[in-house]
Design brief:
The mean pLDDT is 92. Helix content is 35%, strand content 20%. The strands form three sheets. Strands 3-2-1-4-7-6-8 form a seven-stranded mixed sheet, with helices on both faces. By secondary structure, it is α/β, with parallel strands linked by helices. The protein has one domain: Spore Coat Polysaccharide Biosynthesis Protein SpsA, Chain A (Alpha-Beta Complex), CATH 3.90.550.10. The chain is globular, with a radius of gyration of 18 Å. It contains nine helices and twelve strands. The two termini are 18 Å apart.
Length: 280
């Protein structure tokens, strides 16, 4: 998508993983991203050949990277995405200043995704108000499977950082991606199969909380991003325009996992129903 040099979005990039998703599963992400005024580059990983979804993405000025995913012979795309993103960024040196790594299916944009993000550090976003890694059975299992007993104990009292969305300057993001890809590559397949899908969240939390080489900032939930799955629905309200506010009146730029609440999901899906593309 062409942008004027004066447009800061010209040097921004949104990367997302949508492998196995059809148009209905990416449309809220894509339609809302463009509706909030983001004019920068966006790239989604999709399952090869993905003809229909790639055609839709092109119509919204979103590029795609087709991925061949064979479950029996490769790690899940949730694990592979970090090295794919790193390769993509490294092949385009000095073209991008800010990067957002994002889940796709359950993300809606309500304001510009980079609004107020000025630090070049990685921004790691917490989920839930108070729950710690050690208190959550799933996250606890992931960190125990991916780290040593000492590391698991060290993060047990830390808050859960969501691996679904990370925002930062290109250099810091690339260092984070390389660290994630390195740790993932060293997880034996027997451990991978034992701890199951989503273990990259365990590695993410070990890096965020324990690795001093990661140049990052930990950001509280319900500020820039509302990650909603661990929060009560009573903490949020839905207005007549299908926008999600916190009960304090704050409109988060990004809502993640909004689909856990059916009322919110139905309203947002209706708002971002795909409109026909004009043909010249």
């Amino acid at each position: 998508m062409s942008s004027l040099p004066s447009d800061p979005d010209a040097r921004r990039l949104v990367l997302g993983a949508a492998v196995g998703f059809d148009v209905d599963q990416v449309r809220v992400f894509v339609e809302s991203l463009r509706s909030v005024g983001y004019t920068g580059h966006a790239v989604l990983l999709v399952r090869w050949p993905g003809v229909t979804v790639r055609r839709y993405l092109r119509s919204r000025a979103v590029d795609s990277i087709p991925i061949l995913q064979v479950r029996s012979f490769s790690r899940s795309v949730h694990a592979r995405r970090y090295s794919i993103y790193a390769d993509y960024l490294r092949a385009r040196p000095d073209r991008v200043d800010q990067v957002m790594l994002s889940d796709v299916r359950d993300v809606v944009f309500q304001r510009h995704p980079f609004e107020g993000i000025t630090s070049p550090k990685c921004h790691f976003f917490l989920e839930g108000a108070a729950q710690t890694i050690g208190q959550d059975p799933t996250n606890s299992r992931w960190v125990r499977g991916c780290g040593t007993a000492e590391q698991a104990e060290a993060v047990a009292g830390r808050r859960i950082s969501c691996s679904g969305i990370t925002i930062g300057g290109t250099r810091a993001i690339l260092a984070y991606l390389d660290a994630m890809a390195d740790r993932i590559g060293n997880i034996p397949f027997r451990v991978y199969r034992k701890i199951g899908h989503g273990y990259d969240q365990g590695i993410h939390n070990l890096l965020v909380h324990l690795n001093p080489d990661i140049d990052g900032i930990i950001v509280q939930n319900n500020g820039h991003i509302a990650t909603m799955a661990l929060e009560p629905q009573s903490l949020y309200r839905l207005d007549n325009a299908a926008q999600i506010y916190t009960t304090s009146g704050h409109l988060p730029p990004i809502c993640h996992q909004y689909d856990r609440f059916p009322e919110f999901r139905h309203a947002i899906e209706a708002r971002y129903a795909i409109q026909p593309v004009a043909r010249g």
